[in-house]
Amino acid sequence: MSTPNQVSNQVPDALPGQLPVVGFVGLGAMGMGMALSLLQAGYSVQGYDINDAARARFAQAGGQAVDTLPAVARGAEIVVLMVLNAEQIDQILFGDDKMAGMVGALAPASLVIVSSTVKPTYVETLAARLAAHQIDLLDAPVSGGTSGANDGTLSIMVAGAPASIQRADPLLQAMGKNIYIMGERPGMGSTMKMVNQVLAGVQIAAAAEALALGARAGLDPNRVYEVICNSAGASWMFENRVPHILADDYRPHSAVEIWLKDLGLVVDTGKELHLPTPLAAAAQQLFIMAAAAGHTRLDDAAVIKVYEQLAGFRVLDSVAAPESD
Q1: DSSP string for residues in 266-309
Q2: Residues contacting 235, CB < 8 A, separation 6+
Q3: Which of these, 171, 189, 205, 232, lies nearest to 303 by C-alpha position?
Q4: Least confident segment among 14-23, 72-81, 126-135, 279-288
């Protein structure tokens, strides 16, 4: 029992029908939508982000915004991590300053859900490290973009102990439309995410190259978009990203820097498996070129700018003039 001057780490037993308190770290483009979906489903959510404006927005939406990571964990039965990379996860869980050190504040038998895109081998190691603190881990990366996060319609690729999956299922259902159980070994969900990122990253790069080719040859890019969306070359990424280019709007939904990381993880995972990934590597180089040209923080559709800069033209200059009456 705690004294009056101590904060207990013991998670109280939920009353019948009562939803558990959830901690959420990472209120960015994807994480904000996911956390808000949990609020809409009736969960009490303690949210943290390093960005003050993100915390303020979360509080305005009805969430409990906290200003330290241990405060996210206190009283929470389940914690969701939706941050950039493995290094941030390590700092969040095992750091020792006011911004980190969540493990010390988590009660035994708490569940940490990792929804960030990280290497499968990292997730395996992390599960063992958390188990040493009597904390369970669920490997649950997501796909579906900001629209899926905002609408609660993400695809979630889950791996972990059956009991942990069952425990987290209502929460996952609140954030996603398609929940795929990939296996019991942590890392299998992240492996599935690597497979997805090969296709998604290559398709963004291919969309930029195809649109640039058509525009450079004098085709109206709007017409190119219309035809491809109704032809065999269509892909979800083409249909979703090309409108950003046509609107000349590169506000980041998913930034170029995300693909520097994700395709790097794909290539590294291929090396570990002794499996070549030449298409992923080629797409990675395009994103590296975009970053080198100063487009790191722009929407990932900004890879089109690599072609524009190399060839000395603008795709939108090929837009057909409106017909006169």
Answers
A1: HHHHHHHTT---HHHHHHHHHHHHHHHTT-TTSBGGGGHHHHHH
A2: 203, 206, 207
A3: 205
A4: 14-23
Which phi-psi region, left, alpha or beta, contains residue 144 (left: φ > 0; alpha: ψ -120 to 50)? left
Q: Given its phi and psi angles, is residue 117 left (phi above 0), alpha (psi -120 to 50 degrees) or beta?
A: beta
Asked whether 25 and 69 are in contact (CB, 8 A), the reply is yes
Beta bridge partners of 233: none
Check if 193 is active-site.
yes
20-55 burial: b if 16+ Cβ within 10 Å, else e: bbbbbbbbbbbbbbbbbbbbebebbbbbbbeeeebb
* Average pLDDT across the chain, whole number: 92
**Sole residue written with tokens 């013991």:** 10
Catalytic residue among 98, 119, 177, 193: 193
pLDDT at residue 18, rounded to an integer: 81
Sign of the C-alpha dihedral, residues 139, 270, 129, 46? negative
One-letter amino acid at 254 equals S
**Residues 303, 266: Cα–Cα separation, whole Å:** 19
Q: What is the pLDDT of residue 188?
A: 98
The half-sphere exposure of 292 on its side-chain side, counting CA atoms within 13 A, is 9
Summarised one tens digit per residue, pLDDT across range 251-290 is 998 999 999 999 999 999 999 999 999 999 999 999 999 9
Q: Which of 103, 115, 111 is nearest to 70 (CA)?
A: 103
Token pair 């979800």 in the structure block, residue: 236
Question: How close are the terminal C-alpha atoms of the chain, in Å?
Answer: 82
- Report the distance separating Cα 323 and Cα 114, nearest Å: 53
Strands 154-159 and 142-143: antiparallel
DSSP string, 158-190: EES-HHHHHHHHHHHHHHEEEEEEEESSTTHHH
DSSP code, position 224: H
